[in-house]
Design brief:
By secondary structure, the protein is mostly helical. Helices cover 65% and strands 0% of the residues. It is built from 4 helices and no strands. The longest helix has 14 residues.
């Protein structure tokens, strides 16, 4: 993994972390919230896992960026 994924809120206070504010469209937020609920995980944990997975393989991000151009 690219970095250790911090899950528990207590661990957040002990780990060195940075806060990220991200504005996303309402429909994307809704879809993320639904998927997190289906998986029974907090949205923030799901996002950390997705970011971590994307950073593991540089071609994944390159392909996503290229597809948006």
């Amino acid at each position: 993994m690219y970095h250790s994924v911090v899950v528990a809120s207590d661990a957040l206070t002990e780990a060195r972390v940075k806060r990220l504010t991200l504005d996303i469209p309402a429909d994307l937020h809704r879809a993320l919230k639904i998927r997190a609920a289906e998986l029974d995980v907090p949205m923030v944990e799901l996002l950390r896992l997705l970011i971590d997975q994307a950073l593991e393989d540089p071609s994944t991000l390159a392909n996503l960026v290229e597809a948006q151009r």
